[in-house]
Amino acid sequence: MNRRTRIRTALATTFPTALTLPVCWLLAASGLVPWNLLLALPIALVVHAAVSYTRLPAGPGRPSAGEAAGRGEGRS
């Protein structure tokens, strides 16, 4: 998987979380949650995207940890 695809996939995984932003605005405007929550949400989205990006496979040329240790399939 190339870098561009990894970035798009990582950003796509944050989309459901980003949909909560209007709900958080309404809750903050009504006084049910503190306004600081709105400041924390973009930080949470960035952290979520970064973790998703690092967990995605880097590419077809890199073996997984099990294959690198000699535990790949097809070995007896």
TrEMBL record:
Domain of life: Bacteria
Region Disordered: start-end pairs: 55-76
Residue spans of biased composition, Low complexity class: 57-68
Keywords of this entry: Membrane, Transmembrane, Transmembrane helix
Record bears the keyword Transmembrane: yes
Membrane-spanning ranges: 38-56
Name the UniProt record assigns to this protein: Uncharacterized protein
